[in-house]
Amino acid sequence: MQILLTNDDGIYAPGLAALERQLRQLGDVTVAAPLTEQSGVGHAITYLTPLMAREVFDEERGHRGWAVEGSPADCVKLAIAELCPKRPTLVVSGINGGLNAGINVLYSGTVAAAIEGAFFGITSIAVSLEFHDDARFDLAAQHAVAIIEQILAQKDPESQLYNLNIPTAALDGPTEVRIVPAATAPWGEDFEQRLDPRGRPYYWATGMAPDPPSDEETDLNALRAGHITLTPLKFDMNRRDKLREMQAWQFGQLEQTR
User: Fold this and answer.
1) Which of 148, 136, 126 is nearest to 27 (CA)?
2) Which of 82, 147, 194, 236 lies at a 20 to 30 A Cα distance from 56?
3) 68: part of which helix (H) or strand (E)?
4) Domain chopping of the chain, boundaries
5) Cα–Cα separations (whole angstroms), residue 122 to 88, 114, 119, 126, 228
6) What is the mean pLDDT of each run of 10 residues along the chain (258 residues)?
7) What class, spelled out in words, does domain 2-246 have in CATH?
8) Distance of alpha carbon 207 from alpha carbon 190, whole angstroms
């Protein structure tokens, strides 16, 4: 199996290295990741300037992968078109340092990279670990790859897109995987105003995730309870129920005005 591994934390991120070591049990791994951290860039792509990429090496392993001066989505597009020795059968993005749950999937570069893989009809999985000063990426990578193996063994033949989140509590003892929807409550939009050394105001985002509703289990509820969460996603944003309704609407002819 040919695996493409990427992330949004950058080519030198410890979560990427930990996941690469474990994924090599499943097949050949090509790494293509941003040269610098790209957290929160969503699905941005580079098309107005050249996209630079160079091989990265280290003394221990030799070839480490490709460092791309672009976004996570750029990395996936370029790797599938140019950098992978053959077309990947699996795209994995992570391990991100910090959960990508709830509405945050729309902002996440980690999830965007997986979505980009899905655009190409390739099963793609975003993997994130709850942020902690002493993040145990090696153990999280073991859990992630064990789950990925089970996903591949049980999913239907069509390509799929998944978002996998691992809370810190899940690394401390037995846990379970919950198949849950992503919460859709808006992320907190609080800002703290500060002054720079010249007295000019600037703003620092301080918004936090909302408290999840208790009447429905979502990824936020399950993560707070210490469970690993797995959410199937799709990128088709069409409101097909509204399409059918709106196709019966009547619009008058529009006249050109001067």
Assistant:
1) 148
2) 147
3) strand 62-68
4) 2-246
5) 7, 9, 7, 13, 23
6) 98 97 97 96 96 90 90 98 97 96 94 98 98 92 98 96 97 93 84 95 81 79 95 95 93 81
7) alpha beta
8) 4
